[in-house]
């Protein structure tokens, strides 16, 4: 029985768009900004952590990557960013990719653009509607203290927004063949990369020695977010030949090596999943939990907030309604955060669905749990630290879900435990079939 709503998915190709030579000064300044951001963030972290010569790379890495670690930027850095905002033209720079789109930033500004691949437009609209539901859930007073962050949503730009694309099309260059501009575009808060000192240690520790210089010099590796895999260990410790820091996977055995506070991570992820399930009414299918930095920013224009749009109102709109906005940011400092991203494949539901079809709902939630990359600890694993991580994750999930449903709808109070029981039962069945623990297929 299909009881949940979901977005579409497909694939495609296209030709690049070039940028005129008149933008060379802006390009140069954009590159300067990225380099300055690295140096400032690296220097201030070293000062604030008061790292001594006896500190091991693992100790430094654990401190820098721990959520809530703060580094202050200098006033000159803030002034440089403000100068970027005042430039008439600054090119957009590709910083990542997802299933339904490519991600761009505008250096000196605090937003990112997810531009839909051809045939993925409906998936991007689903990303918007689900993302807004989840953002609203985390904004509720009882959920605001969550360790996990959801990037702020700002706008949605239609491919038919002629004015915006006339002003911005020439600022995109070397666009991947999978997208054709103009295209549907989702605008959200830019998750800043992990600091340079963390990236250097990751390269020295996990990249083949012969490739380290090349990897360190590759500008794409500045765009480093780290996926946190609490439910999987490395298949091998041999460095991969195609090492990259984009979408870098950190497995549970690596977290143990660096003495990372993984217990807190497990509890935080469990709590976040409970909020997504029972406050947002979303199944969390194929979402990601990543470590990245957050700027202490002020946004002068947030079109979704200015229009007072709720997730229910956006869901009722015709797909790809244009929500274009202009955003200005004042960066003050950066903090390491655990982020939740990528909602294009999620399903959503209402209370009537949960009341009338509870078995089908729980089946979908369990399916989503095991179809995700291995962010969640697995039940029935008796080794350290997996056993403790599952206990913390499931306990945190039940505790948070109980609080949410006590306020929202007590008729659903039994369902969170049914979800946890369903995950355990599925593991039992997998072990009986000889599939072993962690039978999820990790997607790179």
Automatic annotation (TrEMBL):
Boundaries of every DUF3669 domain copy: 338-408
A family per Pfam: DUF3669
InterPro entries: Znf_prot_DUF3669 (IPR022137)
Protein name as annotated: Zinc finger protein-domain-containing protein
Organism (species): Penicillium argentinense
């Amino acid at each position: 029985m299909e009881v949940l709503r979901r977005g579409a998915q497909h694939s495609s190709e296209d030709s690049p768009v070039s940028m005129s030579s008149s933008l060379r000064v802006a390009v140069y300044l954009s590159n300067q900004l990225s380099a300055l951001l690295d140096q400032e963030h690296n220097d201030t972290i070293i000062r604030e952590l008061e790292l001594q010569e006896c500190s091991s790379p693992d100790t430094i890495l654990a401190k820098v990557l721990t959520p809530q670690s703060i580094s202050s930027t200098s006033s000159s850095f803030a002034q440089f960013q403000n100068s970027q905002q005042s430039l008439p033209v600054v090119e957009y720079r590709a910083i990542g990719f997802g299933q339904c789109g490519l991600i761009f930033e505008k250096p000196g500004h605090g937003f990112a653009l997810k531009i839909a691949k051809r045939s993925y437009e409906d998936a991007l609209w689903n990303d918007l509607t689900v993302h807004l539901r989840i953002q609203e859930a985390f904004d509720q007073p009882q959920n605001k203290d969550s360790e996990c962050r959801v990037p702020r949503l700002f706008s949605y730009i239609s491919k038919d927004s002629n004015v915006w694309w006339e002003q911005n099309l020439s600022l995109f260059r070397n666009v991947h063949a999978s997208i054709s501009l103009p295209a549907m575009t989702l605008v959200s808060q830019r998750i800043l990369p992990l600091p340079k000192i963390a990236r250097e240690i990751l390269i020295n520790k996990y990249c083949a020695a012969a490739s380290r210089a090349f990897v360190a010099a590759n500008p794409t590796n500045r765009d480093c977010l780290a996926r946190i895999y609490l439910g999987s260990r490395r298949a091998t410790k041999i460095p991969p030949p195609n090492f990259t820091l984009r979408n870098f996977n950190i497995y549970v055995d690596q977290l143990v090596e660096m003495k990372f506070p993984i217990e807190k991570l497990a509890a935080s992820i469990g709590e976040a999943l409970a909020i997504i399930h029972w406050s947002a009414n979303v199944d969390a299918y194929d979402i990601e939990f990543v470590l990245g930095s957050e700027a202490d920013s002020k946004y002068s224009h947030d079109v979704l907030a200015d229009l007072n749009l709720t997730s229910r109102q956006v869901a009722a709109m015709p797909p790809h309604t244009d929500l274009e906005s202009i955003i200005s940011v004042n960066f003050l400092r950066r903090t390491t955060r655990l982020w939740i991203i990528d909602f294009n494949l999620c399903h959503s539901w209402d209370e009537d669905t949960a009341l009338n079809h509870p078995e089908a709902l729980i089946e979908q939630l369990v399916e989503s749990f095991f179809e995700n990359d291995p962010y969640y600890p697995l039940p029935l694993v008796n080794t350290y630290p997996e056993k403790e991580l599952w206990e913390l994750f499931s306990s945190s999930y039940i505790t948070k879900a109980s609080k949410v449903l006590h306020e929202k709808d007590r008729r659903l109070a039994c369902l969170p435990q049914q979800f946890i029981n369903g995950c355990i039962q599925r593991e039992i069945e997998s072990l009986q079939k000889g599939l072993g623990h962690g039978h999820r297929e990790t997607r790179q």
